[in-house]
Amino acid sequence: MERHVSSLLIGPGTNAGPNHSFITGPTKGGLGAQTAIDLAQGKPDKILLLGRTESKVTPVIEEIMSISPSTEVHFVPLDLASFKSIRNAAAIINNSVSRIGVLINNAGVMAVKDYTLTEDVLSTNLVRTTSGISF
Ligand SMILES: NC(=O)c1ccc[n+]([C@@H]2O[C@H](COP(=O)([O-])OP(=O)(O)OC[C@H]3O[C@@H](n4cnc5c(N)ncnc54)[C@H](OP(=O)(O)O)[C@@H]3O)[C@@H](O)[C@H]2O)c1
User: Fold this and answer.
1) 24, 54, 106: which to mutate for ligand 1, most atoms within 8 A of CB?
2) What gap in Å lies between CA 60 and CA 120, rounded to an integer?
3) Rounded to an integer, what distance in angstroms lies between the CA atom of residue 131 and that of residue 62?
4) Which residue minimizes the CA distance to atom 15 of ligand 1?
5) pLDDT in 10s for each residue of the chain, 135 residues
6) How many CA atoms lie within 13 A of 120 on its CB side?
7) Which end of the chain is more exposed for a tag (fewer CB within 10 A), N or C?
8) Nearest-5° Cα angle at 73, 71 to 79
9) Whose CA is nearest to atom 7 of ligand 1?
10) CA 54 / ligand 1 centre spacing (Å)
């Protein structure tokens, strides 16, 4: 996959404050994961990977650590189809950083075949594609 976020790379020593990046949907092999890996080239202070399936994100964490050992990288559980999960992720973020440098709302699904409802009784497709901006 070609590098596609080079304009977002902010190395240490800038005056932008702590360089903390957040990416939703960083499943290995997907656009979010590649974006996180590209961001790691800029040796950010911290990358938080927000996903619903930790096993799909662990290999991405390992790759980031090999690219930039100085970067703190964490998995934050987040299911955008659940407001409870979104609030939980927001609480974790509030407790771990004072500001967000880069936020990439990547998580989503395309062409959902069936109409289903979330635990909050909302359209699953609508929630997946919009609730990422809620925190
Ligand atoms: N690839 C394309 O051609 C294309 C074109 C237009 C738009 N997009 C959009 O670009 C984004 C990334 O696409 P991609 O091709 O990299 O797809 P992908 O590999 O399937 O990545 C989608 C990510 O969203 C996560 N996700 C789905 N539902 C979620 C939920 N309820 N809560 C939390 N995370 C959820 C998935 O998690 P799991 O792995 O755990 O399911 C996965 O990490 C998506 O939003 C997609 O709609 C892609």
Assistant:
1) 106
2) 30
3) 28
4) 30
5) 444 443 344 444 444 557 889 999 999 999 999 999 999 999 999 999 999 999 999 999 999 999 999 999 999 999 988 899 999 999 999 998 888 888 999 998 876 777 888 888 777 766 666 554 433
6) 17
7) N
8) 155
9) 110
10) 15
Q: With respect to CATH, is domain 6-134 assigned 3.40.50.720?
A: yes
For residue 115, give every residue at least 6 positions away whose Cβ sits within 8 Å of its Cβ, in sequence order, or none: 123, 124, 125
Q: Which CB contacts under 8 angstroms, 24+ apart, belong to 124-128?
A: 124/81, 127/80, 127/81, 128/80, 128/81
Q: What ranges do the domains of the chain cover? A: 6-134
φ, ψ of residue 51 in degrees (nearest 5): -145, 170
Distances (CA, A) of 29 to 72, 87, 101, 115: 21, 27, 24, 27
Residue 89, burial from CB neighbour count under 10 angstroms (0-12, 13-18, 19+): buried
